[in-house]
Design brief:
Elements: E1 3-7, E2 17-23, E3 30-31, E4 36-41, E5 46-50, E6 55-60, E7 67-69, E8 73-78, E9 177-179, E10 182-184, H1 195-204, H2 222-237, H3 239-242, H4 261-276, E11 279-287, H5 289-299, H6 311-325, E12 331-335, E13 341-345, E14 351-357, E15 360-362, E16 365-366, H7 374-389, E17 403-406, E18 426-430, E19 434-440, E20 443-457, H8 463-478
Parallel strand pairs: 14-17, 17-18
Antiparallel strand pairs: 1-8, 2-4, 2-7, 3-6, 4-5, 6-8, 9-10, 11-20, 12-13, 14-15, 14-16, 18-20, 19-20
Helix pairs in contact: 6-7, 6-8
């Protein structure tokens, strides 16, 4: 028997340390090459780590929530196969020959000075290469107790519930009920849920046994989780649930949150940007009534059917258009090692969109946004937002940005003075759009008004240039038809 230890790799972003967020395996599980074994949080995102070895997990060497340095051993895997085989109804029809254990990791260097769009990695990271079917899937039986607490198996046993706790039609009589994985027999005390629903529940820290199932087969659905989470949030919002009791010592009523991962990286970058780049901010009120009309027409257009469309789409297109007319806002200030400096004007637009995620602020960017049609840009914005909210934004998606938009209006804020994303010289804050009295042709009438706020690196962008750029952005919001020129 050979015991293989897997060390935390550099996943390609100059990684020095990472936190083990969650384990996807436990001691006694059988894994194949490329099976996801854990999730780690780096300074930029959540990354899934696949197993470089095939065999049986013998020990988890790092507990969840612990931050370790690159090169630290995090798991040991024996090359022996133990445990029950996969049930016959999901077993592959033929067993492939054994696949020798081999590491999958290699350094993934990225030159920060180059456009990373489409840059290939030197080695596969997650889900690449064929799955090794020679090793049976890990057994679903409960494994022996381990020193490290890990996530529950994919089908969790639950405590029996009373009839009052379940709805009519979703009782415990699930014998021979068809499911996605075949026929289930006698699983009276098990929760039914599809793998994506289980993943969401794990991420939110929800015990599926506490959720009332409304699915047609008695399974917990996404909607059930949303309803349960909303109820839980409402309970946490109650005053008694937030404020500590007056009788306790003051130091026991102070919540201490470690600064690490995305929050730590964001704080460091914002401090460096605020004190390295001399910021100057300007603001402009904009009559966005015609933008609102244009968005309304797009929503009813057959070409945009099924695509979420918002005024942010028009602003993104306006920023790209205005940057082409004022190229120096799409640039970087670079200090050379010899003490000299240079301004690098980018003839491509990697448009950053600041996104608030459960793990902090992230700024993924849309590569070569200048080449996208309005529909393609809308799809890119939708994909970016969905990925960011799910915490699945990958490091390459946040590298190489050239200019950023922050949509503070989504929270009802009129405007602000945003801090420039490091490596860039401009950022545009998009305020809320609401009806206000507006003078038009000598008459006061209600119009849809927004306020744009722009911050600029004064080493590169002078007052005149920043004013012309913001005026051009405002011009598109006031008259989207200018995009057709």
């Amino acid at each position: 028997m050979t015991l293989n230890k897997f060390n935390l790799p550099d996943v390609g972003e100059g990684l020095t340390e990472a936190e083990v967020v969650s384990w996807k395996v436990k001691p006694g599980d059988t894994v194949a090459i490329n099976d996801v074994i854990c999730e780690i949080e780096t300074a930029k995102s959540i990354v899934e780590l696949p197993s470089p070895f095939a065999g049986t997990v013998t020990e988890l060497l790092v507990a969840e929530g612990v931050t370790v340095d690159v090169g630290t051993a995090i798991i040991s895997v024996s090359d022996e196969i133990t445990g029950d085989p996969t049930p016959a109804d999901v077993r592959p029809p033929q067993a492939a020959p054994d696949v020798p254990a081999q590491p999958l990791y290699g350094k993934l260097p990225v030159d920060a000075g180059e456009d990373t769009a489409g840059a290939p990695f030197n080695a596969p990271l997650v889900g690449s290469g064929p799955k090794a079917d020679a090793v049976k899937r890990r057994p679903r039986k409960t494994a022996p107790a381990a020193a490290v607490t890990v996530n529950a198996p994919e089908v969790e046993p639950v405590q029996p519930r009373t009839a009052a706790e379940v709805t009519a039609g979703h009782t415990a009589a699930v014998d021979n009920r068809p499911t996605l994985g075949g026929t289930i027999t006698g699983l009276v005390n098990r929760v039914l849920a599809k793998p994506p629903v289980r993943k969401i529940a794990r991420d939110l820290g929800i015990d599926l046994a506490d959720v009332v199932a409304t699915g047609s087969r008695g399974e917990v659905t996404r909607e059930d989780l949303v309803s349960y989470q909303a109820q839980r949030d409402a309970e946490l919002d109650k005053a008694d649930g937030f404020w500590g009791k007056a009788g306790k010592p003051q130091d026991q009523r102070v919540e201490r949150i470690p600064v690490k991962g995305v929050r730590k990286a964001t704080a460091k970058a914002m401090v460096e940007s605020a004190f390295a780049a001399p910021h100057v901010s300007i603001f402009v009120d904009v009559d966005a009534s015609r933008t609102m009309e244009f968005v309304k027409r797009l929503k009813t257009s057959r070409d945009f059917e099924g695509i979420k469309v918002s005024p942010l789409l028009i602003l993104a297109k306006a920023v790209i258009w205005a940057a082409a007319r004022n190229p120096s806002v799409n640039a970087s200030w670079v200090d050379n090692e010899d003490g000299s400096a240079e301004i690098q004007v980018k003839h491509f637009m990697n448009l950053g969109i600041a996104a608030a995620t459960p793990r902090g602020l992230m700024v993924p960017n849309i590569k070569n946004a200048q080449d996208l049609s309005l529909k393609e840009l809308a799809l890119a914005l939708n994909n970016l937002a969905t990925t960011a909210r799910a915490g699945k934004t990958q490091p390459p998606e946040m590298q190489g940005g050239t200019l950023t938009i922050t949509n503070i209006g989504a929270l009802g804020i009129d405007t602000g003075t945003p801090i420039i994303n490091p490596g860039e010289v401009a950022i545009v804050a998009f305020g809320t759009i609401k009806q206000k009295p507006w003078v038009l042709d000598g008459e006061v009438i209600p119009r849809w008004i927004t306020t744009l706020g722009g911050s600029f690196d004064h080493r590169v962008v002078d007052g005149d240039l920043s004013a012309r750029f913001m005026a051009d952005v405002a011009a598109i919001l006031e008259e989207p038809a200018l995009l057709l020129d």
